[in-house]
Amino acid sequence: MLSLRQLSRQVPRGVARLISTAARQPLRTPAFAAARTAAHFSTSLIRRQDATTQELAAKLNSEIALEKEQQADDSYRYNCQEYIDNSEFKIEDKAGTEEVHLTRKYGDENIKVTFSIADFNTYDEEADAEDPALYGDEDGALDMDGQSGGANTKGAVNQGRTAGGNIRVAPEDEIAPADRPELQDEEDNSASFPVRLQVTVTREGKGALAIECLAQDGEISIENVYHFPTAELAEAKTAEKDWARRSLYTGPPFGQLDEDLQMLLERFLEERGINTQMA
After folding, report:
1. For residues 119 and 197, is the Cβ–Cβ distance under 8 A?
2. CB distance 104 to 88 below 8 Å
3. Which domain holds residue 155?
4. H or E stretch including 221?
5. Which tens digit of pLDDT belongs to each residue from 14-52?
């Protein structure tokens, strides 16, 4: 009886010590704890990206508005429509493409003129920058130093009453300003947009003649002339046709042809409506 009473007293004490000991012991951590990784995207980065996106969208909307404004220009539309109304050519313009085709019949010939509207946006400012007329001629520069003693020389203007009053004048200064050709054309000087033309003339069973031209400053000049056995090779719309076209010998360069032949080819185009009016 005494042993049971002592056992009942000892059990609660042992359980209490066991619970308090377990509470004081820290939880064991795993041997290989997963390392904390930093977030790849921060709030500031997202805000910067949003600002850039908004700025880009605003700029694109501005460019689109500018394109629509140019399309609505009645002067360009009127000039194109006036040419089509008074020409034998028919225009083929597909929405979403940059190539424009002008087609017509001339006897038994099928004529197609192809150009790209992208050429109208390729104004070369370097060509004007390299114009020698914009710079003074170092060799022929005006000598503004008066000659000692007032001696007269050829091409000099007597200023009078000065010891060194004779100033050498360039020959062009002897021409009245109103008679100078560069001043007469100054008002008509405008931006030049060279446009490349691909002219294809085909006849049934006679092959095709491909003529590469350049339209600039109201004139059309021939750059190269090629003859192909078929119209498919002349236009070469597939990679196979283009490869077969490159392997063919199509004749010497246009500049190496006889001058009379060059003139006849230019007249050949003019008679078919590929002339200054088209340019």
Report:
1. no
2. yes
3. 144-190
4. strand 219-228
5. 545 545 554 455 555 555 555 555 555 556 666 666 888
